[in-house]
Amino acid sequence: MSIGSRIVSGYDPERICIAVIGSHSALQILAGAKREGLCTVLLVREDLAPLYERFPWLYDYMLKLRSWSEIASGTIVEKLRSLNAILVPHAGLVEYVGVERAEKLEVPIHGNRGLFRIEADQHSKMRLLVDAGIPTPRVYGSPEEVDGLVIVKMPGAKGGRGYFLASSPEEVRRGLERAVREGLIRDPREAIIQEYVVGVPAYYHYYASRLYRRVELTGMDIRYESNVDGLRRLPPRFAESLEPSFVVVGNIPMVLRERLLLKVLEYGEAFARTVEQATGLPMMGPYSLESIVTPSLEIRVFEFSGRIVAGTNLYTGMGSPYTWLYWDEPMWPGRRIAREVREAALQGRLEEVVT
């Protein structure tokens, strides 16, 4: 039995709350829980509270923190459990709290907590995708192997910060040395050197439902990144003098050619099966596969997120063209989470939707 299943067995199913950390996708998660009639708890650092205080109808309880590390403190954990709270993880949980504390957090989590450690390591992430039989870009074992254009990525949920392009062993080494100096990594081996695939970026959003025993496609997006997207607007002679960066600043909605949808769904389902095999815990809740679609319409998945991604914020209150295929009402990931939790509570199956 998982940590969450053990704890939630003592909860009052008629008084379940959805808890979320105040960043990333908190607004849509809170709005979705409210739409489903659930109680909401917001965990927020004091300096970020003014944003959420402008939307007081979205939360029933606001727990202000001096630092993110307080989330794992006995006081906060006890408060969450007294409120029958189920925590919805997003990129902030592991990034702010740390893998060790997030894994052992004595609060039920709607998601697979066994993925936290895998997702924090770029090399483990790629091995899981390969194990799922999903086409991926080539990964180079060392700078010396580089023989073409590559993208070098930092570990953790940093929104693309520190990523860089290189085309020779020396450029890779220099970039890794800079990343160590800037504190993005402690050891160059923490970063991953990946083949840069030319094509259209497409990020697929899924929801793995334990109650309905299916993987749903909930939307897609393209990330808008600085400054690489801004460089496209510059004349080549100016763009060539600037080094591209890949910090995500926003998201753009996307609809894929219908002939590609079967492959997208098959990859999402294969990923969910492989996660359960790798972690011993079922895949549940939202997740994302991040890909490049080549001119030959091959989908190459270069990364995944094992929890809700900010690109799903696009569909808050409306749903996407894909959620309407499952639900004849506005359904977005934040609401889909709350729907699953609410129905599980009504059916006496809360232990199945938490870890």
TrEMBL record:
Query: Does this entry carry the keyword Ligase?
Result: yes
For the IMP biosynthesis enzyme PurP N-terminal domain, which residue ranges apply?
18-140
Does the entry feature the keyword Cytoplasm, yes or no? Answer: no
Q: Which residues bind 5-amino-1-(5-phospho-beta-D-ribosyl)imidazole-4-carboxamide?
A: 24, 251
Which top EC class is named for this enzyme in its record?
ligase
- Where do the IMP biosynthesis enzyme PurP C-terminal domain residues begin and end? 172-355
Q: Which UniProt keywords apply?
A: ATP-binding, Ligase, Magnesium, Manganese, Metal-binding, Nucleotide-binding, Purine biosynthesis
EC annotation from Swiss-Prot or TrEMBL: 6.3.4.23
* Cofactor(s) demanded: Mg(2+); Mn(2+)
Question: Which GO terms fall under biological process for this protein?
Answer: 'de novo' IMP biosynthetic process
GO molecular function annotations of the record: ATP binding; ligase activity, forming carbon-nitrogen bonds; magnesium ion binding
* SUPFAM superfamilies listed in its UniProt record: Glutathione synthetase ATP-binding domain-like, PreATP-grasp domain
> Which pathway is it part of?
Purine metabolism; IMP biosynthesis via de novo pathway; 5-formamido-1-(5-phospho-D-ribosyl)imidazole-4-carboxamide from 5-amino-1-(5-phospho-D-ribosyl)imidazole-4-carboxamide (formate route): step 1/1
Q: Which reaction does it catalyse?
A: 5-amino-1-(5-phospho-beta-D-ribosyl)imidazole-4-carboxamide + formate + ATP = 5-formamido-1-(5-phospho-D-ribosyl)imidazole-4-carboxamide + ADP + phosphate
| Binding locations of ATP | 225
By its UniProt entry, which PANTHER family does this protein fall under? Answer: 5-FORMAMINOIMIDAZOLE-4-CARBOXAMIDE-1-(BETA)-D-RIBOFURANOSYL 5'-MONOPHOSPHATE SYNTHETASE, 5-FORMAMINOIMIDAZOLE-4-CARBOXAMIDE-1-(BETA)-D-RIBOFURANOSYL 5'-MONOPHOSPHATE SYNTHETASE-RELATED
Report the sequence similarity comment from the record: Belongs to the phosphohexose mutase family.
**Tell me, what does this protein do in biology?**
Catalyzes the ATP- and formate-dependent formylation of 5-aminoimidazole-4-carboxamide-1-beta-d-ribofuranosyl 5'-monophosphate (AICAR) to 5-formaminoimidazole-4-carboxamide-1-beta-d-ribofuranosyl 5'-monophosphate (FAICAR) in the absence of folates.
Q: What is the protein named?
A: 5-formaminoimidazole-4-carboxamide-1-(beta)-D-ribofuranosyl 5'-monophosphate synthetase
